[in-house]
Amino acid sequence: MSIISKAYAEGAAPAAQGGGMEMIIMLAVFGLIFYFMIYRPQAKRAKEHRNLMSSLSKGDEVLTSGGLVGKIAKVSADSDYIVLALNDQTQVTIKRDFVSAVLPKGSIQSL
């Protein structure tokens, strides 16, 4: 019995000491990677979209996230909805947040 216990005792590795500083440095590196690769670009896109939503005005040609292309017929400052004219007879009311891009003037005629 004593031979087996010695074999187990000799094979055991000593516990690592002083690993706290390396762990803090590794967490800081992962935090920086997360900030620069995930959070910062997403915050930039959200800011650009907020600026786009605030700059919408009557007559702008827009593309919605659902794929509709039309001209803004009515915008109210107190409402989150806009009226989008798809053609001369058809108008739809959509939530302002669903506008994904403002197109250059004359884009609807070129389609």
UniProtKB/TrEMBL annotation:
Its main location: membrane. The keyword Acyltransferase does not apply. Keywords: Cell membrane, Membrane, Protein transport, Translocation, Transmembrane, Transmembrane helix, Transport. It holds the Pfam family YajC. The keyword Transmembrane applies. GO terms for cellular component: plasma membrane. Belongs to the YajC family. This is Sec translocon accessory complex subunit YajC.
